[in-house]
Design goal:
single chain, 352 residues, mainly alpha, 11 helices, binds protoporphyrin IX containing FE
């Protein structure tokens, strides 16, 4: 139940019982005070999840900058940097990038630990899956820290650097999926919206199959774009573009990323196309599908520019990396919402 549906339920009650006044000036019978507290807990947890997700996207951009600026070994030791917490004497741009990347990663790790503690502590008022999902994300960040350390001690071995990118994306995806699953996604909006569409498209059975098709398409596109990002990570960590143009080596690695654009783009475009052709689609899903189309276009333009300019403009490569992660993330948000839309329509079918 979302806050708005809860509040409308509360306001419809003829209150004889004790009625404290909440922040919105609404009289609330005691039986619902607990439920309001639970909604506040949910809001707080959701807020924390979104904040960690945004911080992770920024941290990934810093990680990419660390790689393209050749700063991966600027701190030669791990976990400290030059044996110190803050290497003031050695500080320059490269050391700062690598040191800041670790510091930021540590803060994200602590925030995720806080999330796990809160969700287990307050589990009685939260969805049952939430503490487990939070614990899973903590497991991912733990692996990520180990991989980060190995990145340094194994002198930027390409498979470790690529696994570090893959786990970072998985962590981001997990947080976004949790945050989206906790978002209010009221069926009431759908009902209002449905007034303006035809009788046929108002049929909950038709709607359910449309949303479930969009969820499946979104999931396929998210997986393909994730794999395409891993191929991109391999190109980056092996410096395959330079190798291919310089000595004709590793062109297969470079080409795999270029060919990989086709399935990833086709799957993503089919999400945009099917969403565009679906009347009565939830407005949020429609906005997200438009965003997905724009991100794909931007990603291909940035990839082409990175390729043509032979990585000479570092900010372009970092932007290509960050937009790629945003594209995977938006596809995941879209998939979770389309799946929730399927469940909502399923409930309409049952309630009919
Ligand atoms: C929340 C945790 C972390 C996230 C999300 C994260 C994310 C990333 C990402 C996305 C990259 C760019 C990879 C690429 O371009 O292929 C990167 C690079 C890097 N990360 Fe992390 N990282 C995290 C923690 C750490 C930790 C704890 C260390 C410890 C030393 C570390 C060390 C590095 C290094 C050395 C690079 C540069 C690799 C290179 O130059 O090739 N990371 N990180
Ligand atoms: C769906 C489309 C695409 C996605 C999701 C994607 C994703 C990525 C990712 C995540 C990286 C790793 C960046 C890093 O390690 O910091 C990368 C690298 C790269 N991508 Fe793409 N990419 C796409 C399309 C393209 C296109 C169309 C081109 C060129 C025509 C391209 C050229 C490159 C190049 C040259 C690199 C290596 C950058 C480096 O060595 O630092 N990409 N890509």
């Amino acid at each position: 139940m979302t806050r708005s549906t809860f509040q409308s339920k509360v306001s419809n009650i003829n209150q004889e019982t004790i009625a404290p006044i909440n922040a919105n000036g609404l009289k609330v019978p005691l039986v619902f005070v607990d439920q309001l507290d639970q909604l506040d807990q949910l809001d707080r947890v959701r807020g924390l999840v979104w904040k960690i997700a945004i911080a992770t996207l920024l941290l990934m951009a810093v990680g990419s900058a660390t790689r393209v600026m050749n700063a991966g070994l600027a701190c030669p030791d791990w976990p400290l940097c030059y044996g110190q917490l803050v290497p003031t004497r050695q500080m320059n741009l490269q050391v700062f990038l690598e040191w800041f990347h670790r510091l930021d990663a540590a803060l994200i790790g602590l925030s995720t630990l806080t999330l796990v503690i809160i969700t287990w502590w307050q589990r009685s008022g939260l969805p049952r899956w939430l503490p487990w999902a939070a614990t899973f994300s903590l497991g991912l960040i733990f692996c990520q820290g180990i991989l980060g350390g190995l990145t340094v001690t194994e002198l930027l071995r390409f498979d470790i650097v690529t696994a570090h990118l893959g786990t970072a994306l998985l962590f981001l995806i997990t947080l976004l999926a949790i945050g989206t699953a906790l978002m209010p996604f009221p069926p009431s909006q759908r009902t209002i919206f449905r007034e303006s569409v035809t009788e046929h498209s108002r049929n909950p059975v038709t709607e359910r199959s449309r949303s479930s098709k969009l969820a499946r398409l979104g999931l396929t596109a998210a997986i393909l774009v994730y794999l395409q990002s891993i191929l991109g990570g391999l190109v980056g960590s092996r410096w395959a573009l330079h190798q291919c143009f310089g000595s004709g080596e590793l062109c297969a690695v470079m080409n795999s990323h270029l060919w990989g654009v086709i399935p990833a783009s086709l799957a993503t475009l089919s999400v945009v196309f099917v969403a565009w052709r679906t009347p009565g689609l939830h407005p949020l899903l429609r906005r997200l599908s438009n965003l997905i189309g724009c991100l794909l276009l931007g990603q291909i333009v940035l990839g082409y520019a990175t390729f043509k300019l032979h990585l000479q403009v570092e900010s372009l490569t970092v932007a290509h990396h960050t937009l790629g992660a945003s594209l995977v993330g938006t596809l995941v948000v879209f998939t979770v919402l389309a799946w929730r839309d399927t469940v909502n329509s399923g409930q309409l079918v049952v309630n009919r």
